[in-house]
Amino acid sequence: MRTKQQQTVGIREKPRLDKWIILSIQHLFAMFGATILVPMLTELSPAVALVSSGLGTLAYILITKGRIPAYLGSSFAFIAPIIAGMSIGGPEGVMVGSFFAGLLYGIVAIIIRATGVNWLMRLLPPIVVGPVIMVIGLGLASVAINMAMIDPVSETYSGIHMTVSLFTLLLTIIASIFFKGFFGLIPILFGIVGGYIFAMYQGLVNFTPVKEASWIEVPDFIIPFVTYTPGFSWEIIFIMVPIAVVTLSEHIGDQMVLSKVAERNFIEKPGLHRSIFGDGIATIISSLLGGPPNTTYGENIGVVALTKVFSVFVIGGAAVFAIAFGFIGKVSALITSIPTAVMGGVSILLFGIIASNGLRMLIDNNVDIGKKRNLIISSVILVIGIGGAFIQITDDVQLAGMALATIIGIVLNLILPGKDPVKSSREMFEEMSSEKKDSEIS
After folding, report:
1. Does the pLDDT of residue 236 top 80, yes or no?
2. Contact 398, 111 (CB under 8 A)
3. How does DSSP classify residue 313?
4. 296: which strand partners?
5. Exposed/middle/buried for 203, CB within 10 Å: 0-12, 13-18, 19+?
6. Which of 120, 177, 403, 412 has the greatest number of beta carbons closer than 10 A?
7. Cis peptide before 270, with omega less than 30 degrees from 0?
């Protein structure tokens, strides 16, 4: 008979101190590569991203009453919107957009608390979310390629940069395929470290900022009414806020996976409204400090699944370590010294994986693309999102790219006949549990 005893460390259980530290550091390494990659691609501060992810995770644990072992890190879905927002209003404008994206999470959480979650699943079925996730990855393809082969100084093609990128990509692929256990969970970090060492021997690394940096250093926080006066931009709002609709669906998926791993229905208890609200508060905290929006991390869910350590104290410990790392100036300078070619090599694989995960969502949910309705929705989302279509609302306001593709996808799903039935959260959880039991029997 199967029981919760298969959990090595329970959700509310506090491990012995030495074990606690080791397990928390393991989670820190799992999230580290992806969390610092987002700010590096968007010209935000990696140190601030670490601090905001740690504070956001602690807030999330508090809001969910310490019942969901999830770590929150920088969201890849917002990379393109942040880059676009930076060109319009700089980092300050992006923080305002991020704040309103967090507010949308809060509004959705309140509605779910009052009406339940099934309406959200009907609004964001796999046929909408899958193609939008593909747009997120494929829309960033040119960013990864430019980082991989363009010298940022001369802004021309560089064979050395391309070689470093391909070497980094190869290391990351090898780590993903052949490494097992804990090391199999950190291929991004392995690729960055290996690529960094190779780039150093190619003369692409400047250690001067690392030598000059202090050991203890306050990150470059961007704080409203302290470092800047917030300004409102409808264009940035229209670019960033609709992306929260996509990350909401990803959030639900993460909660389903965690529920499956832990054999507890987190959608019902402590409730999806608490989880989404916690995610929104984490994003708001990040926006008040100058970091990218946060989201629950699949990397850390993988660590939980592998180790069977479900303790929120372990997750909280990782959050504390992340905050501490953000205040170590040498670490921040070392991160900043990573050449763009190295990050480009990692990004080639990472952005491709994001796109592939959108395809996987369609496959896992048995979406029939041969059905005309589904074919139309997915096709329109892909071309509008990747093609860069936009609607000019006013002289200064556009609804563009992923945001436009998401909204049009939702509208098409609502108006076209022949919708596929959408399972309730309880039905989906019961289905996952029965599949797990069947696999164990076989």
Report:
1. yes
2. no
3. H
4. 72
5. exposed
6. 403
7. yes
**Residue found under tokens 């199999």:** 184
Amino acid at 123: L
Angstrom distances, CA of residue 312 to CA of 21, 28, 277:
13, 14, 18
Cβ-based neighbours of 132, under 8 Å, separated by 6 or more? 246, 358, 381, 385, 402, 405, 406, 409
Structure tokens at 300: 């850390």
Burial tier of 96 (Cβ tally within 10 Å: 0-12, 13-18, 19+): buried
Give the number of other Cβ atoms within 10 Å of residue 413's Cβ: 20
Alpha-carbon torsion, ordered 221, 144, 140, 331, to 10 deg? -20
Average pLDDT over residues 30-36: 81
Computed from CA positions of residues 321, 324, 325, 331, in that sequence, does the dihedral angle turn out positive or negative?
negative
Diameter of the chain measured on Cα atoms? 65
- For the record, the structure tokens of 168 come out as 């980094």
DSSP assignment of 92-112: HHHHHHHHHHHHHHHHHHHHH
Q: Which has the higher per-residue pLDDT, 431 or 262?
A: 262
- With contact defined as beta carbons under 8 Å apart, do 125 and 412 qualify? no
Rounded CA-CA distance 60/54 in Å is 10
